[in-house]
């Protein structure tokens, strides 16, 4: 039996070694190229909402069975997609790597073991596994606890040379191109890498002190010494304000300011820490020590010792750890719109298919994939995998074409299962709670300041399945108003077909 992922990789490699896909110049279309009909006229009226008069709105709706365009409005206009970018990176990962693909993390010994002592460091070589942490495990450090058992099984109860993190699989840094500086440190824009833990996040819970005027009590999850906290919070009398601000002063340091009211349940914040490889090594070292494996020396990033060091260059495998399969990782990205996984997937495609773990190489593979599929519309600028970048540009026409292609994919079931369901889960859990959209929309959301996007699949009341993409840029209306317009349009289509 032919492996579809292998076949896809072969087709892409032929393109990569052959020619570069021709550039396509996007030309915006008129609002609708079809003879007016009642549905088109009604949709035009919806999208001409006065509160969105100055917005740039691109729309395309197509029949899945026939490919017919049901409605379009500036469908080939290049727009900022926000997290609709994940449709591109997710589809590329699924098609080229396959749903069974697993990341492999290697645990190496940087010296000989005698009498239970590893006379050298424990060297951890990552390839981008995004599954370490609370998103995949009830106990975020469960894999590390299992590693302690494996080390004991290999006769190691003491590590004399500390833990060294090697995260060279990705070659373009820890942040995406075009990410806005004032988003950094937030829980949606944490750093990512070939070794990463807990989405690059640490949860801060600040509880009131038993004494008014004293600093609040800070609890970290995971409990790690990697994060250094300067606690400038104050406990105020019951009924007062509970509001905490966390300001990052360095990759592993925060100043907490604000107040927490006595008798309250406290305040919770998720903060993004830097240096993902070192964060990984720090939590691993702490967990091993908790599990009875003595670890001497601090956690170290490979850049501090150099890849040419004897302890790294001569390290040999002890065991390896495999991630959950790609189908689970894809769902963990698409349902909640997880940015770090998206960045990881794009770079993994670049490394596995194109030989370089960079976003640029991953984007090149996406271009080649679309050429292999003979897409007519290839309008695209792919600066990152998540959609956080303002440099990203894509057209609704390209997104619907990709959605149609994925509905015919050998991996269709895995693809559809990854999508948020209207009114039920993911980023659509609190939207589309009523018919005709409840349970009848499978779609990826997208949101940045003045950007709102929704692309996916709609099942009408007659059972017809449609692919759609709606992207709004440059509006000043409240986001809820944009959502209302989008859902009004989808409801009309669902009840008119």
Number of strands: 22
Fill in the CATH topology of the largest domain.
Answer: Beta-lactamase
Q: Nearest-angstrom radius of gyration? A: 25 Å
The overall pLDDT average reads 91
Looking at how many chains there are and whether they match, the oligomeric state comes to single chain
Total domains: 2
Q: Which structural class best describes the helix and strand composition? A: alpha+beta
Which range does the strand content fall in? 15-25%
Largest sheet: 5 strands, antiparallel
Helix count from the secondary structure assignment: 12
Give the second-level CATH assignment, the architecture of the largest domain: 3-Layer(aba) Sandwich
Give the fraction of residues assigned to helices. Answer: 25-40%
What would CATH call the class of the largest domain? Alpha Beta
- Give the distance, in angstroms, between the N- and C-terminal Cα atoms: 39 Å
Using the alpha-carbon principal axes, give the shape.
globular
Low-confidence stretches: 17-34
Strand arrangement, major sheet? 2-1-22-21-20
CATH homologous superfamily heading of the largest domain: DD-peptidase/beta-lactamase superfamily
Report what the structure shows.
It contains twelve helices and 22 strands. It is an alpha+beta fold. It has two domains: 4-100 and 326-496, 3-Layer(aba) Sandwich (Beta-lactamase); 103-324, D-Ala-D-Ala carboxypeptidase C, peptidase S13 (D-tyrosyl-trna(Tyr) Deacylase, Chain: A), CATH 3.50.80. Helix 1 (4-17) crosses helix 3. The longest helix has 18 residues, at 479-496. Residues 17-34 have low confidence and may be disordered.
